[in-house]
Design brief:
Length: 504
């Protein structure tokens, strides 16, 4: 038993070391005044303050670090925002739980208290949230999600584009915004030229050379190759004469030409080809013939992308060039967009053309727009907001600090202690804004006790401020999923008493 207890304590020490390391790394990136991280991988460089991206690119091997990374990634997938907060809050709750364990409270009791605290926080947030109407508060939510990003100099432009997407793609009946209807294409250029265009812009550039005038075209997507068929197995063919070589070349040329003629006879003007792993999807000879026939080609499209194009254009993919049916060909208005192809197809479908001066900036613009559109999607689905600046954590802190259940004194004590973990977010926000953390947080606790439940850490006043007056808002879904996810993650970690490697 002593050995087991010693092992469990050693594991807890290692967990605490990991959470402390992550907290010290991530804390400076929290909030609108947070700092960026430069992450290098070989010859590529990424500059970001997005929590999920930082944790993912650090590629930490410790299982606890990977668990926190997964929690942050889940928040990114679900809400698009709050990825740094959820990682830091998880670490803070684990620290508080470790203190309780040192006071001889069993981890299972603490985990039960975390479940009670989580449910109480969800209830408190739902009661304190405000319903919104119109687009003004939605714009505020989107702006706040972009405040801490590199793109904040173009915050109005990105917000306008996001609002255009929401108006165009939202299903008015179900109030849903299907993310599959929002395409994204990255093209180098000034960031202020980021824009939404209706229809589909193919992510893969046009293979054919030269520009073309906008016109109605017949379009087909191909899940087969345009070129000489090659055997799946390794095979060696020996040609021992010049005449034999000429015969092979003539046969290949005739075969490829017949395929291209069949495509042209079907009236197809634009060919979209799936990327092939085993062999090239389009031979140079095939491209030459198609260009001579006036057929445009987009090559090397990933399978998932190609299937999505086919679904949105409502056509079936071509799997056999000699058996092209009418259902496999669609007719759309097509135009050229800086080397890419825009197809006016699909209802409630659009493409956001993201701009950036280089690849590093383009990637950050893409991440920023992803946050913005996910925040907008949450508000469309659930038009309720809470206030930023650490307000959700402070509101929940007040509720947990007052919790008492005479039938479960230990759990009540743990819930009140866990409330301290929620103060980590306003404390770090205060530090990053240059305010005195202790006096700011203590002042906010007193303000909330007096009923000023919209007060939080202000960037403008470098201290306390009314987030309602400053229009610092965020979707209820971001706050709820962030705090719930942190409690779930911390509860999972404190139950671990050993690391056991699986046999290979």
């Amino acid at each position: 038993m002593k050995q087991q207890g010693g092992r469990a304590e050693e594991v807890r020490i290692r967990i605490a070391a990991v959470t402390q390391a992550i907290k010290s790394t991530m804390s400076t990136s929290l909030g609108p005044k947070g700092m960026d991280k430069m992450i290098t991988q070989g010859n590529s460089t990424t500059i970001t303050n997005d929590g999920s991206t930082i944790l993912k690119m650090m590629k930490m091997k410790h299982p606890i670090a990977q668990l926190i990374c997964n929690i942050s990634h889940a928040q990114d997938e679900q809400s698009g925002d709050g990825t740094t907060s959820i990682a830091l809050l998880t670490c803070a709750l684990v620290d508080v739980a470790e203190t309780l364990i040192q006071r001889k409270i069993h981890p299972v009791v603490i985990a039960d208290a975390m479940e009670v605290a989580k449910n109480l926080c969800k209830k408190t947030l739902a009661e304190s949230a405000e319903s919104i109407e119109g687009e003004e508060k939605m714009r505020d939510c989107i702006k706040i999600s972009l405040n801490s990003k590199i793109v904040n100099a173009y915050i109005e432009r990105i917000t306008d584009v996001t609002m255009d997407v929401i108006r165009h793609c939202t299903n008015k009946e179900t109030q849903e915004l299907p993310m599959s209807n929002v395409r994204r294409v990255k093209i180098k250029g000034p960031m202020e030229e980021t824009a939404m265009v209706e229809g589909i812009v193919l992510g893969t550039p046009l293979k054919s050379k030269g520009k073309f005038a906008p016109r109605t075209m017949k379009v087909a997507v191909f899940q087969c190759t345009i070129g000489q068929s090659k055997p799946n197995l390794d095979a060696k063919i020996t040609v021992d004469s010049y005449e034999g070589m000429e015969a092979v070349i003539r046969e290949e040329k005739a075969h490829v030409l017949s395929l291209c003629r069949h495509i042209k006879e079907k009236g197809i003007d634009l060919v979209i080809l799936q990327k092939s792993i085993i062999r090239e999807s389009l031979s140079e000879l095939g491209l030459h013939f198609l260009e001579r026939m006036g057929v445009l080609v987009v090559d090397d499209v990933d399978r998932k992308e190609l299937e999505l194009y086919a679904e949105q254009m409502e056509v079936s993919p071509v799997v056999d060039i000699l058996n092209i049916k009418d259902s496999m060909v669609g007719e759309f208005m097509v135009e050229e967009l800086e080397g890419h192809v825009r197809i006016a197809a699909g209802k409630n479908i659009c493409t956001v053309v993201l701009r950036g001066t280089d690849d590093v900036i383009l990637e950050e613009v893409d991440r920023s727009f992803n946050d913005a559109i996910n925040v907008g999607r949450l508000v469309v689905k659930q038009p309720k907001v809470t206030y930023g600046g650490g307000v959700p954590e402070l509101v929940c802190y007040t509720a947990l600090a007052r919790y008492s259940d005479p039938g479960a004194p230990k759990i009540s004590y743990c819930v009140r202690e866990l409330a301290r973990g929620l103060l980590a977010i306003p404390e770090m926000l205060a530090v990053n804004t240059g305010a005195d953390a202790i006096s700011t947080v203590e002042g906010l606790i007193r303000s909330h006790a007096r009923g000023k439940t919209t007060f939080g850490v202000s960037v403008k006043t470098t201290g306390e401020g009314d987030m309602k007056k400053e229009s610092v808002v965020q979707p209820l879904g971001v706050s709820t999923s962030g705090i719930s996810g942190a409690f779930d993650g911390a509860s999972t970690m404190i139950r671990i008493d050993d690391f056991i490697p699986a046999s290979r």
